[in-house]
Design a protein that fits this description.
Layout: E1 2-3, E2 6-9, H1 13-24, E3 29-32, E4 46-47, H2 49-57, H3 61-65, E5 74-79, E6 82-87, E7 99-100, H4 103-116, E8 120-122, E9 126-133, E10 136-143, E11 146-152, E12 154-157, E13 180-188, E14 196-202, E15 205-211, E16 217-224, H5 225-234, H6 239-250, H7 252-258, E17 262-263, E18 268-270, E19 276-277, E20 285-287, E21 293-294, H8 302-319, H9 321-325, H10 330-359, H11 362-374, H12 377-386
Parallel strand pairs: 1-11, 2-3, 2-12, 3-8, 5-14, 12-20
Antiparallel strand pairs: 4-7, 5-6, 9-10, 10-11, 13-16, 13-17, 13-18, 14-15, 15-16, 19-21
Helix pairs in contact: 1-4, 1-8, 5-6, 6-7, 8-10
Length: 396
């Protein structure tokens, strides 16, 4: 039995941030991650300007910026043969524009920061179960044929809503026609301007494109399960390729952007996504990242919500450290954390659901674009609603 103050499950942006902040505050932290790093993930990889400011506040901004893509100064909507381009909000801060950063870089950077701060890294170890034993959580972890048991009064679960893990969001065998499945690929040699991040609207799904630091263009998307089944019948190709053919056929802007491009690597797939707020755990179990609050990826705020939600939770835990370590005030911290999640991300999560519903009917989107052309401030307002100008102040 290895005992700690807190066990953090998952070393994505939320888990890495949580482990770093708690270890920096002097807590003994076990960070459990089942995959070896670096590794690719199905993710839009865009980090908003407000979250870049937070990374600088945490002392990690310069190291992250080394691996970041070009500044994103404009956004666009590509729907059918129509296109609309508008300026992105640019809040004050050390990085005035959002930028993409590959998950293979960001996740490793946060994990290494947590390790330097004193966290114990269990990687690649898979958490195969957690149970409450008196005042402690017992977490069994496995690597190949070796098993260990970790124990702590607190657990922060950040394993993601579509990952299999000890804190499942839904029964993975429960398949519904309207499930949204996610896909991701990278391309070289694209013709998309580096400062532009387009939203893609196509029948049955939506997506986005953004440039990374290495000249590659990332294309990520979500599509309904029933639409994907129809595409698999229409195109005798793997799922990712079938979805890509559908997007290129449906979106003139994408055809123009990738007409000279070559795919780099294979398509990744994950899902289904589960947008919305989750009921926070109990008895010292807390959720962060998209286990706690998940927006439709259409607003490209997944990484930012992960980092910010973990920062909010850890600020509360550290502010109430004496009581929390004794098992006191847990209900109060959980209530305050839920209130902060709703206050910071509620508008964006609700807006993302509206945008996603609209984007999956691109002909309606195309009819809306002339209105946005005439009143461009509405497009900027939509970006603000999604959280692009959100600034997070870490005060308890």
């Amino acid at each position: 039995m290895h005992q700690y103050d807190v066990i953090v499950l998952g070393a994505g942006p939320a888990g890495g941030t949580a482990a770093f902040l708690l270890a920096r505050a002097g807590w003994s932290v076990a960070l459990v991650e089942r995959k070896a790093f670096p590794r690719r993930k199905v993710c839009g990889e865009y980090v908003s300007a407000g979250t870049w400011r937070l990374l600088y506040d945490l002392g990690l901004g310069e190291a992250a910026l080394v691996h970041a893509g070009p500044a994103i100064e404009r956004a666009a909507v590509f729907a059918d043969d129509a296109q609309l381009t508008f300026a992105m909000p640019q809040p004050d801060g050390p990085v005035h524009c959002g930028r993409a950063i590959g998950r293979e870089h960001l996740d490793l950077l946060l994990l290494q920061a947590a390790q330097r701060a004193g966290a114990t890294i269990w990687q690649p170890w898979k958490a195969v179960g957690i149970v409450r034993c008196d005042d402690l959580w017992a977490c069994e972890v496995m690597s190949r044929q070796t098993r260990n048991r970790l124990a702590a009064p607190l657990v922060v679960a950040t394993t993601g809503s579509w990952e299999s893990g000890p804190v499942p969001v839904r029964d993975k065998g429960d398949h519904r026609p309207n499930d949204l499945l996610a896909f991701k690929a990278q391309f070289t040699g694209s013709d998309l301007p580096e400062d532009l991040m387009p939203l893609l609207a196509f029948p049955g799904g939506y997506g986005g494109m953004v440039h990374r630091e290495d000249g590659r263009l990332g294309l990520s998307c979500c599509i309904r399960r029933d639409k994907l089944d129809a595409l698999r019948r229409a195109y005798p190709a793997p799922a990712g390729e079938a979805v890509f053919r559908h997007i290129v056929t449906s979106c003139a802007g994408v055809r123009e952007a990738v007409r000279h491009a070559t795919i780099d690597g294979s398509w990744l797939a994950a899902g289904p996504i589960n947008p919305g707020f989750r009921r926070q755990g109990s008895d010292g179990l807390f959720l962060a990242g998209n286990l706690a609050a998940e927006a439709h990826p259409i607003i490209a705020e997944g990484v930012s919500i992960a980092i910010q939600s973990a920062s909010l939770l850890c600020t509360l835990l550290v502010a109430n450290e004496r009581e929390v370590r004794r098992g006191l005030r847990l209900a109060t911290v959980r209530r305050d954390y839920a209130s902060l999640l709703a206050a910071h991300f509620g508008v964006g999560i609700r807006a993302s659901a509206c945008f996603a519903s609209l984007a999956m009917h691109p002909y309606a989107t195309r009819n809306l674009l002339p209105v946005l052309h005439r009143f461009p401030h509405l497009a900027s307002l939509s970006a603000n609603l999604s959280g692009k100008a959100r600034q997070l102040e870490l005060t308890p």
